């Protein structure tokens, strides 16, 4: 996966990924719809280059309303200043991530957009193999992880 300028965002052939292909399940909504559609038309050994997704079909357009300033108590500001730096991605209590754009003694400014929002993405796809999924009594089964309740 690359950006329009050629910046590599993810590569399953990288040393960090040990060159192992990614196992995916078509139809479980874990992929961008366009990528799933493209893979569904491929056979093992097929390679598709320059499969492009517009930002709206990937992580969405940037939304300036998602850049928000949150007031902090003096204690919160002190605690946050010791743990967070401007430019750092932080995880919020609900599990979402945000980019810290500003931090002072009174507030923190967070960008709640996905880091790749507003970016068109380009993929090179290679279908290595197809495996039949689990069937129980002739019915295909799909992995499902129920949402976890929010912790307090």
From TrEMBL:
GO cellular component: cytoplasm
UniProt keyword annotation of Cytoplasm present: yes
Keywords, in A-Z order: Chaperone, Cytoplasm, Isomerase, Rotamase
Pfam family, one: FKBP_C
Principal location class: cytoplasm
GO biological process: protein refolding
Domain PPIase FKBP-type: 2-66
GO MF annotation terms: peptidyl-prolyl cis-trans isomerase activity
Catalytic activity, reaction form: [protein]-peptidylproline (omega=180) = [protein]-peptidylproline (omega=0)
EC assignment: 5.2.1.8
The keyword Chaperone appears for this protein: yes
Location in or out of the cell: Cytoplasm
Top-level taxon of origin: Eukaryota
Protein family (similarity comment): Belongs to the FKBP-type PPIase family.
Protein name: peptidylprolyl isomerase
